[in-house]
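Quick one - first record:
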Amino acid sequence: MKKSILRLNRYKALYLVLEQYSVAFENEALASVELLSTLNSRLSDLVSNLTRPVGLVYQNRKNSRGQFNDALKRAIKIAMAVSRKTENAALRDAATNYQNAMARSSDHRRYEMAQHLSELLTPHSLLVGTLSNQPDFLQQLSTAVQEFSQTLTGTGLSLNERKSAKSEMNALLAECNRLLAQELDGLVEIRRESHPELYNLYTTLRRKRKPRGRAGDKPGLSDISGTVTDAANGQPVAGAQITLLQQASVTDSDADGFFALEELHEGNYTVGCFAPGYQVPANANVQLGSDDSVEINFALQPVETILK
């Protein structure tokens, strides 16, 4: 983001110079000057949103995850107790499997577990209320499931909005650069004799300065984002686990198959992907620069397709 902010500030400074000497322009030339102002305004809005810590987006999901996991663990224990009382083998097997798999399951998979347990326990609502000492236990579980679903959806939307905002910001920065190079530079050049102060101020700002590195400067943080889809039908794969080997971290794809690995330092990274029912694809090796943004997409082959 650092480079983008510096570019935006330079474009704003150039517009202020052009505005100061607006009498030098008219008609189409003035329209080009005003277009730079419009682009700067939209860029300012995007940068303002993107500089907000992305950690705030993840923190809400983290807080909600803790509360939801507690509710799911309690539901599993109640399901085991009910299965013993009713000799319900299906309920017992589901609760046992979920207890064993919970630690390594994604957020979306845990959500599905809670939904399934709620369905299995509903016919035994009176017994559930007695064993849990909470007559409204199933209602509380249903509420926890719904709230967690809303949190996952909201987090996914926020990350998608950031991704779209970054794409739009990069496109607008490129448009500003084209506007300057293809129109405004020439318009100022032909006014060199009539408005020398305009020419001198403008060209000084346009002159690219080679940045000097300073001890202690930190490189701009970068990000890796992308989508996970089913190679057979092109549909998004939710709950796929995206691994970042260098940080031993795991991120889940959202309902639209989107994932984001943000606040990464410059360097080499290995990104892997895993989803139940799909062949594990080859890892992607990425080299990130300072303030970089890289897109990686995984198209997963269903296991059933491979076995045919």
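second record:
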Amino acid sequence: MRRIVILGGGTSGLALAFLRNQNPAPGDDILVLEEGPQPGGSLRTLREEGLILEAGPHTLRMTPATERLVASLELDDEVLVADPRAPRWIVRDGRARAVAFGPAGILSTAIPFGARLRALREPFAALRATGVDDEPVHDFFSRRFGSGFARYVGGPVATGVWADDPRTLSTRSAFPGLWEAESRSGSVLRDALKARKTAGPRSASRTVSFRNGLATLAERLVARSQRAGVRVELNAEILAIEGPFDGADGGGTWKVQIADGTVFPADTLVSTLDAGSFSSLLETRLPRSASRLSTVAYSRLAVVLQAFRPERAKDAPRGFGVLIPRGEGLRSLGILYLSSLFPQRVPEGVALTTSLFGGALDPSAPDLTEGDLLKLAEGEVRKLNPAIGPRVFGRVLKWPTALPRLPVGHHATLGLLAQDLAEINAGSERPRLIVTGSWRDGVGLGERITRAEELAPTL
């Protein structure tokens, strides 16, 4: 019997357990240990007062692996697809302005005219200097597209996606597609145009949710996995990990102890934990990478969920939402408009907004009281949507470790980790230790599912 223990019951851990269990070797035993009281990690759907609200990720960007997983879980009938033509907005001079998605966004009026002209010269911008193996997001956008584009696009994207400081956030690790585009083609725009010409007919990636919220994905993963024999233990705080042992006596390569004293043997251990917890538990087994992994910081976020009742349908916010450059007089990192994206699951006449506060550039915001955060969020929503009507619902949730902060040079840390893992796994037919998570494989749900599909056959 092969014993596989997965540390963490978020999207990565649950997807990996389900996918591995679809074609297990005879007698495989798969256990997921989740320290919290419910599975799903950052997937947190609230169903209150007839509303479906997301306190964690708000949408799922579909990848081929995600499409396959949704089909395997028989969730196709639950999928709600966002209109790909729905506008996105960026605040400039106190007003939300529409911005197109993709290369055409350079021509959007959300960007000052002079900044647009400079951005169009991106194909002729100087390449990064020889020997430069990483760069802050702000510097990358400034060098390739100009300072105006860096302020109105690069900065808001860095804070909106990663809640991080664009002057310290790694381009190579946080936005590897941009970094690789310059490496391949010498230009981000040239690479994008080349990809369009060579891709041929293809189906566009969908942005989706589910009728009862994104937590449906975690709930279905748990139900189907448990039905097939996977065990999911909740409130299982991990205290210690011993090993690796040679496993010759049948006791397992690892021994994982949780807070109630139970010890679980494992032949393969999979960590989806945050970088600090992982490095602390396995410190002596990671001589090259542990010290650097222990310094990976996390941004705190406050999520303010609100419902309004506009008098007229046209007064409700529309589109995906708005990103807010720093210096525009607003504290929100961004405001999302889920009632516009998925109107099928919203009561008639109700507009939902989600405001995000905190991150690396405003770390004290989550310390505000719930009342102060509600007041602040409502005021900023009204500034951008004056006719939105009375607020009929408000709720605040706080995430103490919302998103990893990936500093310049983070790829070198991952390189050291790869060396440590290679040493641990050397000589074994199946890996003894596998590591995944947002700090290693990407922050998007689609990215995590894609990585889980890649890893499942290797366990």
